[in-house]
Amino acid sequence: MITSDLISETYWALSGNKIRSALTMLGIIIGISSVIAMVSIGQGAKNNIEQSIQSVGSNLIIVMPGAQRGVGVQISSGRGSAQTLTQEDANAISGSVSLAQAVAPELSRRYQVTTKGKNTNTQVTGTVPQYLEVRNIQIGQGSFITDQQSKSAAKVAVLGPTTRDDLFGANANAIGQDVKINNMEFKVIGITQAKGGSGFSNPDDAVYIPLATAQRYLAGDTYVSDISVKAQSQQVMATVQQQITDLLLSRHHISNPQLADFNVINQADIVAAAGSVTNTFTLLLASIAGISLLVGGIGIMNMMLTTVTERTREIGLRKAIGAESGDINRQFLAEAVMLTFLGGVAGVLFGWVMSLIISHFSSLQTSISFSSILLAFGVSATIGIVFGYYPARRASKLNPIEALRYE
Amino acid sequence: MIKIQNISKLYKSGNGIETLALKDVSFNINDGEFVAIMGPSGSGKSTLMHILGALDTPTSGKYFLDEKDVSQMTENELAKIRREQIGFVFQAFNLLPRASVLRNVTLPLMYAEIPKTKRQEQAVKSLHMAGLNETHFGHFSNQLSGGQMQRVAIARALVNNPKLILADEPTGNLDTQTGELVLGSFQDLNEHGHTIVIITHELDVAAHAKRIIHIRDGRMVKDEINTNQIKLK
């Protein structure tokens, strides 16, 4: 039996009962398309999170206050609320870690920010001019905090575009106007350019003021909430991280690194951690979809077994006119594989359309990778072979004499 | 040339009961003969047909088809014999439903891996020989009458130009008049030199053959030249 005959016989057999073939295929279509759609959602979420982490800045290392731990004491205060870092630490880093391109300490806290008749609750970040460079922020209008304002603790503020829209109305000119933070008046000197970040730590919804101002008027002490350091390149990140750790350990007089009262976090670590979370999430979604694929495969086996029984006499006839067991086996296996293959193609298309629809109606940019399509085809062909094998074997083992007598 | 030598067939059922369906049967059939194998149901004639048709092998004895010993062949070798040397006609026609007359007739050529270009030509030739004309070629098998279906089946049996055409109760599902037409086709084919063996339990059917082999209780009881052959033309 030559291949083109095998294909034409398979087509003839499947088109003979179109509704049954279509319904059986539907199981595979749903399975494959949900795997494709789920994986694309997972990939989209992963890209989204990675982008929003990257949008914070590149080659970024963040020093955060850690728990103050005594030997043998397990109780520790929560990270972030601890007050172990100062501006002097930041100055020391910029002074002695030569691979650090820019260092920006900051003191952030949420405050109610008001203008006449409008108010918003937003992140107020006290920082220094280097912050722009560290966090990849561009100024849209006006100017950022200057060294002079930083030293003199001037009451000036730079607004993110979202905050500006909230307080003054969309695209209103806010330069030179006043805002009240914690009931103190600040003059608006600049608006940052929109970065389009979303989710946590949105740089567009923020107010930037000089660090000294934040310490003196808002916080009332000299601590900073974290220090952002931009390394000169991707390659020196680990070195910079190590140098900062060593420097701060000696400055804080801590000999055992296990007891450090700060954490040095590499941006790549955050991306990796978030990536592993989204990978687990994707795997979970894909396994749920995979179950429907399994059910679809069992549907194929069920249909093929029914078909073999129904076509017993036909099988008997084919053997009587000279078909070998191998021919019959190939024919029925080809029917199962054809069903899953066509179901796989339709499933990929359907899953692709679904992920486009999801992208269109939600903020999630789904992405379909070539490998997930390849995987879907591999899986559907394998399902065809696995679930078609038993029925095909049963058909090929039929005794022609008994098959011809079958009523 | 068919040589059957001392063939016996023993069936064992699931609970260990043994049935001897054929006992020591021997005969020869020469090329160009028209033989009816006759016997009541349960006589062993179907078993004999299965062995002649290479669907089954005997428990003991030899079956030579053109000097080749078929009685010892493996399953795939038997399939090759059926593909190349034997054409079957069944009582229930056994045509593929939802398939055109042409597709049904070319089916054996597909398994014989005859080039596609030759298939149509051979199928048309054998359909003409079976007495069907072009108007029916595109019809689906379920659109045909019983007599037409059986003639499609005859064309299918002829298409690979077999050594032997085996017909198992070919008129069993047909009325007398249509049955005569089908038997007429067999006589026609025999005139053209085809070797034909008909298995039947009806004397009326057997009477159309040139030679009748009588089977009873698994034994050959009579092998006679039919002097009163009913000639339909």
Characterization of this structure:
The complex is a heterodimer of chains A (407) and B (233). In chain A, strand 6 (178-181) and strand 7 (184-192) form a beta hairpin. Mean pLDDT of chain A is 87; it is low at 70-80. Chain A has helices at residues 3-15, 18-54, 87-96, 131-134, 147-152, 161-168, 211-219, 237-251, 267-310, 312-320, 325-361, 370-396, 400-405; strands at residues 60-65, 100-115, 118-127, 139-142, 156-159, 178-181, 184-192, 206-210, 226-231, 262-266. With 407 residues, chain A is α+β, with helices and mostly antiparallel strands. Chain B has seven helices and ten strands. The model of chain B has no long low-confidence stretch (mean pLDDT 92). Chain B has a domain at 30-45 and 84-225: 3-Layer(aba) Sandwich (Rossmann fold), CATH 3.40.50.300. Chain B is an alpha/beta fold. The A-B interface holds A 1-2, 4-5, 9, 12, 16, 313-314, 316-327, 400-401, 404 and B 50, 53, 55-56, 75-76, 79-80, 82-84, 88, 90, 92, 94, 96-99, 103, 107-108, 110-113, 116, 156, 160.
Sequence-ordered SSE layout with sheet pairings:
The complex is a heterodimer of chains A (407) and B (233).
Chain A: H1 3-15, H2 18-54, E1 60-65, H3 87-96, E2 100-115, E3 118-127, H4 131-134, E4 139-142, H5 147-152, E5 156-159, H6 161-168, E6 178-181, E7 184-192, E8 206-210, H7 211-219, E9 226-231, H8 237-251, E10 262-266, H9 267-310, H10 312-320, H11 325-361, H12 370-396, H13 400-405
Parallel strand pairs in A: 3-8, 5-7
Antiparallel strand pairs in A: 1-9, 1-10, 2-3, 2-6, 2-9, 4-7, 5-8, 6-7
Helix pairs in contact in A: 1-11, 2-9, 2-11, 2-12, 3-8, 9-11, 9-12, 11-12
Chain B: E1 2-12, E2 18-29, E3 34-38, H1 45-52, E4 60-65, E5 68-69, H2 75-85, E6 86-89, H3 101-111, H4 116-129, H5 146-158, E7 164-168, H6 176-191, E8 195-200, H7 203-206, E9 211-216, E10 219-225
Parallel strand pairs in B: 3-8, 3-9, 6-7, 7-8
Antiparallel strand pairs in B: 1-2, 1-4, 4-5, 9-10
